[in-house]
């Protein structure tokens, strides 16, 4: 079994499922070309150990499903995508139909030929439920020609943890070390971060009320000052010069963030005010393809925690877009959801949310970043080479 990095997309069959269900983590996507040498996973213990690397974080109390697709002329199958479900949603009899519809829609979208399922639960609350739910899952997926190739249960994904086959037909064994799996090493080499838990991702988007309180007194003045400056420059025929200096200031803030120093309250207020200029904001999407993408994400996360409403949505959308393009579906989903929650009318946040939920591949959204490069060029600013 091999994790996919790209594929040619065909039009799948469709199956409606409740949009509000939100039962699955968004599918991580892998931009770029397939690796020259696909990575093989031949043992259930190795597969389970690879789950955190493929998801981008260590799942807890989860049902993790690896979706398989024919590869290399149907001689073998590859892992096309990995999705995570809250275990409560996956085993709750009242929601089982919604859960199966959600998973079925994902499988149809990915043109799956089979799936592998791993139940992760250290509470014992759902002990024994795996067989019933896995059987129901197998029966319903079979209606669409999708086979449940295997299902396992484990208390935690950690080296030495014992897993067992849900159906008892594939025996038991020990989980390999997740930190040294070949897929984890591959992800780290490619610059993808593997977080210790989903909570580490959600913590990055939790509003910092104390910081907000310190930024708030400066925000109104910063917005008014930027608008006055832009209006005066436009009347005098120097609008592009004004915006070029504003863009250069934002880029300097990003570069300085690399030192690890947090931005001061006045700087965060000025940054929020500057990003209200659509030309500057749109240029920032170009950074998602550049060598400063990681540093920019750190600044967007800080700004999202420091501001409410539209300003938070602006920063969270930039962060979500950047994560989306580098294939970090779960974190992109968290950031984009925060943007929509902060401002339900934010057009870019809504667009990104729709794109993520419908499984649009990252490369389909690269045009937005290229647009940012063109705007920067028009302003006479070099935002660096495309690095990914």
TrEMBL record:
Pfam families: DUF4192
Taxonomic superkingdom: Bacteria
InterPro entries for this protein: DUF4192
Region Disordered: start-end pairs: 1-38
Protein name per Swiss-Prot or TrEMBL: DUF4192 domain-containing protein
